Input
Amino acid sequence: MTTKLFRNARIFTPLDPGAPLGGATQGRVQVYENGALLVQNGRVEKLGPAAGVLGEIVRAGAKIHQEIDCQGACLVPGFVDPHTHMCFARPREAEFDLRLAGTPYLEILAKGGGILSSVRDVRAASEADLLAATRRRVLTALGLGTTTVEIKSGYGLETASELRMLRVIARVGRELPVDVVPTFLGAHAVPEEFRGDPDGYVALIVNEMIPAVREQGIARFCDVFCEQGVFSIAQTRRILQAARSAGLQLKLHADEVHDLGGAGLAAELKAVSADHLLAASDENIARMAQAGVVASLLPATAYSLRKPYARARRMIQGGVPVALASDCNPGSSYTESMPFVFGLAVMQMDLSPLEALTAVTLNAAYALGVAGRVGSLDPGKQADFLLLDGESPAILAYHAGVSPVTAVYKRGELAAGREDP
Amino acid sequence: MTTKLFRNARIFTPLDPGAPLGGATQGRVQVYENGALLVQNGRVEKLGPAAGVLGEIVRAGAKIHQEIDCQGACLVPGFVDPHTHMCFARPREAEFDLRLAGTPYLEILAKGGGILSSVRDVRAASEADLLAATRRRVLTALGLGTTTVEIKSGYGLETASELRMLRVIARVGRELPVDVVPTFLGAHAVPEEFRGDPDGYVALIVNEMIPAVREQGIARFCDVFCEQGVFSIAQTRRILQAARSAGLQLKLHADEVHDLGGAGLAAELKAVSADHLLAASDENIARMAQAGVVASLLPATAYSLRKPYARARRMIQGGVPVALASDCNPGSSYTESMPFVFGLAVMQMDLSPLEALTAVTLNAAYALGVAGRVGSLDPGKQADFLLLDGESPAILAYHAGVSPVTAVYKRGELAAGREDP
Output
């Protein structure tokens, strides 16, 4: 048994009441100004005011193998990034230039850009290259504080390529000190082979891909890009019902551009999360709150596409638990940085720093169904946490464009950064 | 004599025509897709297409001491950050929280916050502590690609403290591989001792501080915060005229909140730059263009204060050369990151990536009067340059919130990052 004591820390963590924190509780964060955290075998054993934790250690006669003086640094749970497409072969930098120059998306598609170019790249890439590219992005995210990350398939769009992506995603999770949650997103776009026959592709997903994904046993979620011109509400419902029957949990890309009613469908199906939500209606936000669906908001995507941000305050006021994610992908949000996402949420969506902290930790863990293990520093959970060069989580927004994460601990072990604050 | 060859690079650099690039020339950047850069004794000797540079080396029979394969990385001039207040004792994180919560600035001042709290901190700090804090920020900036930085005094507001700040600023420049340009900003605010008597403080600046700063011989520029409630146009003119007589070059914080006509005054006095300019009028922008004044724009400040951005496109269309700066300070823009500033300029102010590149290199060097030495890769200039993990400077905006700077070379030597791309 290994026991480590982290003392002289300003600890900020939501405590887990067994459900995500919505409405007025979104920013309910426990603060220990002179705090201590006791870690045993990679799990949180105790945390609280230093005097109390030290007293209990003495009473129990516990042996401390290592003591780390955090020198007053801020200590927060590791970030959980609940929506990414980090498994892709290469960035699309030239397309970004075209987009800035005002080239319409259809013209970019015609020039071989857009999501289908990432599909061609992934299909053509070797499994080793795809693994190396994905590992590199996850390591960048880890250095910026992400200790749990969801990664979607969805650049394969044919059964073998989708399964290959899920294998790569699972392997990254085995090889790196990051918990990886794999999501099957065969319904990311209609591939060129099915142009003009989206229902044919939906049938392939339902009849061939989902059974194969179930048999492979890697994916925990099924997601669908429900949007005008992509997958309709009816197609989305069909896919997600088949996925649920196959034992997968549900998510959806909902109401990003048009209010198709994706948020309402998420409530109807009791999906674990609905993501994007820039165009979600008040009525469907209310239905999400009633159904306990987490809203995963993606401000870096709004930033990169120069769109208005999702109405985070409206959702919080309506009682929806809000999570934040990077949406890391080569088209609309090429960033692995949760500090950047946190900053945008505070500066552009008007979340308080403590609301944003819950959004990138506990609520994000609920958005992935892994709150039993991560997302807060409740005793018994994994000792996944960060030291920040600042007085409080506000430093993540205040120190703009610069990551204040100096150390990343995964299951109590230093995984990135430096031990000495 | 040491000779280094950097080959297999995608080189992007403005070339220096002897004046800043304004109007249609703002984005005039030379590109060598398969480029090579020959460095001799820390200076650019040659650059161009690999074949040409290698041919000349062979013809001249030059001996190459070190050859670096850039592996296709993008190579750009080191960033010049022409407007910072990096010399301060400590951040003001608690005040940021108050500000987010909507506390009016006057109330923050009454609680001991605001600029005058930084003045108290700097007056109370030891020279060693102030040096350590400033060094740390400049090192952060260096790691993010800044190889030349302007740093202002202005948290002393009394003669001895202002001179002490300038000593610290000069020492950082001697000790670190960064060119530091010191600016005297005694007219940053009216100190508490002169509350109600701003003209008395102006007289102190003119009669005591400027002569002392001249005698000390460190500062190259004099700057004034010309703004309603701070220093009027008449006070600003008086200070800057005295500074010019004392041999200092001129800058001013102009029209940040109110259109006092600071941009027009900059043109009248032929200041080297006018900075902020959020409220500058069309008429005064035209006068800046005629007078050849560089506009130093500070998008991270607009971001942090949630204000509309300066009208960069209007200025470029009007022929004003645009530079970009971090404005790094503990109140309105706590960032050392020029990649972040570049990203905001492209995403929020609609500069093209090549226009933004000129703004953070050559035009910024002109804003500091150091374009003879830095700001572009013209032969004879210092070999200050960066390797970027991307195909072009667009990566600085495309890879949002993550710095793509992998190596920083100062006078041909690796100063931050890693040699192997």
In short: The radius of gyration of chain B is 21 Å. DSSP finds 16 helices and 16 strands in chain B. The domain at 3-78+374-417 of chain B is CATH 2.30.40.10 (Urease, subunit C; domain 1). The interface with chain A takes residues 91, 93-94, 96-97, 100-101, 140, 144, 300, 303-304, 306, 333-337, 339-341, 343, 346-347, 352-353, 390-392, 394-395, 397-402 of chain B (CB under 8 Å).
